[in-house]
Amino acid sequence: VVFDRVADVRAHLDAARAAGRRVGLVPTMGSLHEGHLSLVRRAAAECDTVALTVFVNPLQFGPGDDLDSYPRHLDADIEHAAGSGAAVVFAPSVAEMYPEPSGTTIEVGALADVYEGASRPGHFAGVATVVAKLFHAAGPCRAYFGEKDWQQVLVVRRMVDDLFFPVEVVTCPTVREHDGLACSSRNVRLTPDERRAARSLFEALSGAAALVDAGQHDPEAIRRHLTGIITREPLVALDYAAVVRAHDLAPLTEAKTGEARLIVAARIGTTRLIDNLALTTAAPGTP
Ligand code: AMP
Hints:
The structure is a single chain. The chain is about 40% helix and about 20% strand. With about 290 residues, it is an alpha/beta fold. A six-stranded parallel sheet has the order 1-4-3-2-5-6, sandwiched between helices. It has a three-stranded antiparallel sheet with strand order 7-8-9, with helices on one face. The longest helix has 22 residues, at about 190-215. It is globular, with a radius of gyration of 19 Å. The structure holds adenosine monophosphate. Adenosine monophosphate binds near residues 28, 29, 36, 184 and 185.
């Protein structure tokens, strides 16, 4: 069932909870790929009613960002969502999510000012605000987010803790294409040459992780390794590459397996891509 009104999706999910069903929520901007569907499948395995939300949130896009050209495929999304176990799709309009006049936003704190937040001012206030609104529309639930957007996961968890949302945040591993590139709705915009160059992000991350496995724990040496692999690709303009403490993105004096995370962002042509990797040979860590 597809809803475009907050009141309708809320009534539906309230009724589900009243009937004893556990609600799973998967917030997305649509143009679903295997990464999104892995979240839906995980939610379907752990919850009784899964609601996928599809909303390209203008608040999290900056003036130079790709809001207008962001891919939109609602009909295909609805089909994929159902095929992966989401019984509910909530796809509101901008006017439904941001009725005029509205001025309230969520301010996140220091976590929102570094890395993605520094490169995209206002981005995480936009993310936190829309996620807060979606959480309120959905009510108490488990909400599923991808590790691919590591800083976003930290921001959402922080908001849930700080503002007492009745939501349990579940983080799911990054789904990758055959050559390691993290699945992203933006990948379809890469030309064949750019698509080949985009491999350098994961090559850098896995190369640096291997360096740590081999005993290198100096964050600066690891960062240089990351930077070296990405900058030798002429089509890729590196934004940042860093070794950070996984749970708060703080700088580290020693990169230890389990505690540290590698994060990168780069522009390829007009497309901005981000990726990250846990420093562990076992299962990827969760924040
Ligand atoms: P987006 O539509 O890009 O806002 O993403 C919606 C959700 O899907 C977010 O929680 C993302 O972290 C997650 N996601 C996006 N790409 C991937 C991926 N490759 N693997 C796992 N989760 C992903």
